[in-house]
Every structure is written in C-alpha cells, then in structure tokens.
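Contributing new records

If you add data, match the layout below exactly. Sequence lines come first and carry their own label; structure lines follow with theirs. Keep one chain per record. Anything else will be rejected by the validation script.
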Amino acid sequence: MLLLCSCDEGQKVKPYTGQSAHWQQSAVPMSLQCAACHAGEFEDWAGSDHAWAYRTVNPELDSEPFHGQRLSAHGSELRFTTAREGHLLLADSESKRNFTVHSVLGRRPLVQYLVQGKDGGLHTPSAAWDVTRREWFDMFEADERLSREGSATRNAGDWGHWLGRGMNWNSQCAWCHTSHFRKNYDAAADRYNSGWKEPGVTCIQCHKLSAAPSADGCLVAPGERTLSAQQMHDNCATCHARREELDDTFVVGDKFDDHFRLELPIIPGIFWPNGMQRDEDYCETGLRLSRMGRAGVTCLDCHDPHTATLKLPQEDNSLCMRCHATGTVVGSTASPVIDPATHTPCPSGSKGARCVECHMPESPYMARDPRRDHSFNSPDPELSAETGVPNACLNCHADKDHAWAAGVVAQKYPAQKAARYRARTRAVHHALAGEGNTQELLAALAAEDVPGWRATLLELLARQEPTEEIQQAARAAMKDENAMVRAAAARALGEEALPLIHDPVKIVRRAAAWQNIRHLVNNPQAADALAELTAIAEHQSDQPTGAMLLAMLADARGNTAEAEQQYKRAISLDPASAVAYMDYAVFLARLNRPMDALQQMLNCTRVAPQNPEGFYRLGLILAELQQYGYALSALDKALQLSPTFHRARYNKAMILQHLGRNQEAQKEMELLRALQTPPTPTQP
C-alpha cells in the first residue's frame, strides 16, 4: 500500500486501513490513496452503484446465476454453469460455442456478464440476471424496435446480435463503467486492446489528476481541486447521456460538447416529441430541453456526488420543495413557488401527490430497470391523445383514458398556458412523422428560448427543402451562445457555414466540416479541420458509422477504391443497415455504375421493407435507367409507406409528365400543393 507524504507536517500520512462496502478495495489503488485523507467520502462512494459499475467475477456473488440455469434468448438456448475449477461458463447453442465469463457489470436491479469475443473485445448477451426475481431474462424480448422491425435485428451476424458490434462492451459501454478508459481499436487488425486505470467509476474519474502528487501527497494539485458546477455536471453527462462519442480523451474539467455530440429528438422512436425519454436515453438530453436545465440546475443540485443517491427524499416532496417552497433563485431564475396541497388534484399522501410521479415518470431501461425522466414535462392528456406522448395520469389511473384525464386537468388548471409548448411539440411530432412543414417549425423556433429546443428545431429544419426563411434562421443561429445551436446551424447552411470549422467547440467544427468535406481537401487553411475529422472517423472506425465516415473522407480525397472498401466494411459490420446500402448506392451512381447502385438499393429495400426512403431512392435509380414503370412502382411503395413524402410525390409527377401522362401528373402536383399548405393551428 502506498504511503502519502505530507511535506507540511514532515511525516507520513497513515494509509487507509478501514473496510468498506467496495467489492475489492485492492482493485482501486489510486482511489485508496484518496481514502487515506478522505475516508468518509471513500466509504460513501464504495457502497455506490458507481463503485460497482464494473468488477471481476466473485464466487460469493455470482454462484447462483450459474448453477445450471437456462434461458431462451435472441434465437438461442443459453446455459449457465460453473466449472470444477470455479470458472463461470456460458454455452450458446446458436454459435455452438462455450464462453468463460470475464467480468461483471452492475449489481441492481440487474447484472450483466461479459465474455470475450473473437475481436479481442468483451460482449454481453442480451440475457441478464434479475437480482430481485432471481432469474435470467432477455432484455430485448419486449423491445418495441423488435416489434417494428421483426427479430432480424438480433440474428447471428447482425449488428444488434450479442456477438455483433452493437453489443460490444469496449465500444458501447466501457467508458461509463471504468475510469480513464481508452478503447485502443486497431482497424487494420480489427481488434481491441482496451485499457483503463481503475474498474468502476472511481475518484480519478471525477477529480482532476495532476501530473504528479502535490506537496501534501494528494493526487489532485491544489489549483485543480475547484471545479465549477458546469464542469462537474459535464463530467456526469459523459455517462448519463445518450450521445455520440467523438474521442475518448475527455478529462474532468473539459466541456462535454468538445468530446460528445448529444442526441436530440430528431430521430423517430428515440425521444417523444416533447423531449421525454422513449428509448434508453438517460438524463442529459431531457435536462437540456427543460426549463430547469435552462436555468442552470445540475446533477449535483439533487444528487450526492459520492453516494450518487438523492440529497433529500422524493417520497414526501422535500427534495423538490427545497427550491419550489421558497422560490430559490437558480442562475437568474426564481423557482416557481408551489403549494403541494393545492397544486395537484391527487389526494395528499397518495402516490399521485408526489412531484416526481407527474413530472419525472418512470420508464424501463433494459426491460426491468425503471429510470425517471429528466425533461420535467407536465402531463398534458390532450396532447397525449394527439401525439402519443406519455400521459403520467394513466400511470396511476390505468382504468381511465386520455379524455378523462384531460377533463380533470382542464378543471384543475383552467388558466394553464401551454400554447407555446403544445405548438412546439406538434411541430416536432409532425416533422418526425414526415408531415412537418417549414412554417410550423420556424414558428416554434421563433418562440423558443431553451437552447436545446432551438438546436432540435434547427436540426429538423435542416432536413426540409431549403428556403430563404430557413437560411435566415440558420444565419442568425451561427452566432448563438450555445454550441448545439451553432452546430445545427452549420448543418442547415452547408457551404455558407464553412467559417464555423474554426469554432472553439468541437461539435460545431465537426458539423461544419462534414457539410463542407470537399472544401477541406487541399485547403491549407482547413488542414486542422480535416485532421480532426479524420481522427473522429478513425476513433469510430470499429462501428459501421465510422466506416462510412472514412468512406466519405476517402471519396473526398479522390481515393474511390478505399471509399468502396469502407462502404463494404460498413455493410459487413451491419448487414441490416438501410443507410449503409443507400450511401453506397449513391456513391456507385456517382461513379456511373447504375447497375451496381441498383443492386445496393434492392438490398436496402430487402433489409428495410418499411423504409420509404429506400423505395424513393430505388425509384430514382430505376428512372435513371429509364425503367419508368418499375420506378413508378417503387415511388408508389414509398408513398404507401409515407403518404406525405413530398419528394417522392414530386418525382412521381415528373416521371408521369415525362411519359405524357399529364392529367395524372397534374393530380400529383395538386396533392403535393395541398400537403405543403400549413394546417390550421389547433387551439391549445
């Protein structure tokens, strides 16, 4: 054990000799140094879920799940046993392989066990151990993505299969389960050589280390011991966010947006259109979309930094009322004063009278792990009926419906001013459904003062047909104080956003660079931007997205052979990816290889038969090949899947006109004009 020297006292500091709830104290030698002076904090942390985020196998803890248990999961029969020498074994009937358990994730309410794959990385089966029910279960059995797409997303060889890249721990999980993790992926060998300093989320992940211990023996230098609330929050967000990882070099004190791109409600099925969690979305997006986040509320306002538990109980509302009983000022915003006795229509002392049940409802992660939403929305049954967003009222009143709840809300809150929020939710809902129109999104953007929502609305506008109004809004957003908004502006502006490759924040530079990738090549003033873009793509190269980014870079540099190799690699990593086939087809068409492009689009529609974009692009390629009848059939299929698909209808009209079928073409254009007419606003 290391002895810490204190030069001020001229004597050795006694090492930590206590015993805590940590699974094995010798596994965290650096944190044990901290414990010598900070025993209380260490002992609080040692019993936390952070301390148990990743560990080695322990016979006392892990024997029951591997006592001859069986489970049918992802099309395979799994058997869990213990070898004579004590190793935990997992037998998989599908691959006909036996695996030795390498390590363990978590401890409650479920535990996942990791095994080594052929790529040198660790993988976790979709089977997890429920510590309460004391049984194995399939985390994806009731996954709504599977109900939409069918079981193909979890078949052997697919990205989402437990031996595929979608369940690779090194790429998908490790940053949040270890301290100072480095992925160390070798693309040429297609292997991982990952490493970390300590297992679990330990002291060194949240406290900035100095180059060498300071005079008092502390691993944190005096000048690095004070962090701002935002710096501490950004450190929490690196794990408690659904995000894209741009590198693995973040250290506490850095900006989140310099290393990660936060996922916003711009993809169907990920978030609800009011920002509430729908998939496994964690906390950061919801908080950034909330007015509490806008005011400056951070994780540590509610959560103890060492135990990671709440600072006050939520059951009696004391945590929330700490601010909302007194009008506490956060940033420059006073908390609305609330009287719990009159605020809710639910009886005092009931479950419905708890603030969190209405404003932070739970939804399950990994099938059996309930997590609370952090967007702090208010229940709006009328909007729930219209857009499908969850209605917290029905969590308690399961025998009722939206209409009943809407009546209660209207009677209790007759002066509720929800017009702006409803308009925004409707705009996002329509855009995610492919029914959005520019004016609806622009109106919501003009009324928005929460940066996260400004960024979301701009991202959705960037997907619309470009108009002068969109360009004007994006030009104004280039100067926004928030990096997410500037990044969204870059995606909307294209070439006009080229100056943003010199922005101080990486997510903005990256967005501007990808929009202008061909302008970066052979441009001395853009050398840094091109190098940064390449580094991001290489970091992500173990995933299909990274391979596609490398393909785009190679194509921009004129290396079409390398580009084609990377597109093929992206497809091999995720054979069910519609996007990979589409992008490869566009690339082939540009190389004047229309028959090869046609084959890729046929592959796309085969693996994604419910994707209207695939049939639309198939129709375009068939039209180029002058196969107009087949092209019209493909466009009709796209419109069948998405009746408001404007580009598909426009191109159908153009083909009909080319064929001399003018009356049919005119009818399609009339339908298109009707669809593009802004709907009459619904009264709040």
